[in-house]
Amino acid sequence: MDLENAKVQMRKGILEFCILHIISRGEVYASDMLEELTSAKIMVVEGTLYPLLTRLKNSGLLDYKWVESASGPPRKYYVLTDTGRVFLTQFEETWTDLQASVAQIIQDSFHHHHQQDQGQA
């Protein structure tokens, strides 16, 4: 099994969640979103973001509006729709449950290995 591929797949699974979370704070420009995702090491390829934003928009979870810019052409700012807010709330519940489940499994594995190390398995 390829570790890099596994890491990419894991990131992909939570990328939408992170994007929706960033947009939930208020209107956000794509390049600012990209900067935050990159600095958090969630995403490193710019080409991944725009198709994902389009898919989320087509799913009715987000929308965008054009805002005039003093320094050039209008900029596209993304916002969550009401549907997107409901989706994000449900996604957060799932994330919280998953985190707890994964933490429990990791903790059980740690205890199991610790017992084996002490010859108590």
What is the structure about, briefly put?
The protein is built from 4 helices and 3 strands; from the N terminus they run H-E-H-H-E-E-H. It is α+β, with helices and mostly antiparallel strands and 121 residues long. It has one domain (3-117): Arc Repressor Mutant, subunit A (Orthogonal Bundle), CATH 1.10.10.
Structural overview:
The chain is α+β, with helices and mostly antiparallel strands and 121 residues long. The protein has one domain: Winged helix-like DNA-binding domain superfamily/Winged helix DNA-binding domain (Arc Repressor Mutant, subunit A, Orthogonal Bundle), CATH 1.10.10.10. Helix content is 67%, strand content 16%. The protein contains 4 helices and 3 strands, in the order H-E-H-H-E-E-H. Strands 1-3-2 form a 3-stranded antiparallel beta sheet. The chain is elongated.
List the SSEs and their pairings.
Blueprint: H1 3-24, E1 28-29, H2 30-39, H3 46-58, E2 62-69, E3 72-80, H4 82-117
Antiparallel strand pairs: 1-3, 2-3
**Oligomer, anyone?**
single chain
How does the overall form come out from the CA principal axes? Answer: elongated
Instruction: Quickly give the structural class.
Output: alpha+beta
> How many domains comprise the coordinates?
1
The CATH class turns out to be Mainly Alpha
Stated plainly, the CATH topology is called Arc Repressor Mutant, subunit A
CATH architecture: Orthogonal Bundle
Quick one: CATH superfamily? Answer: Winged helix-like DNA-binding domain superfamily/Winged helix DNA-binding domain
Q: How many beta strands in the DSSP annotation?
A: 3
**In which order are the strands of the major sheet placed?**
1-3-2
Proportion of residues in β-strands: 15-25%
Give start-end ranges of low-pLDDT stretches.
none
- Number of alpha- plus pi-helical segments: 4
Mean pLDDT score, rounded?
Answer: 88
Beginning-to-end CA distance, first to last residue: 28 Å
| Backbone CA Rg | 19 Å
Helical fraction: 55-70%
Task: Summarize the helix and strand pattern as letters.
Answer: HEHHEEH
Query: How is the main sheet built?
Result: 3 strands, antiparallel
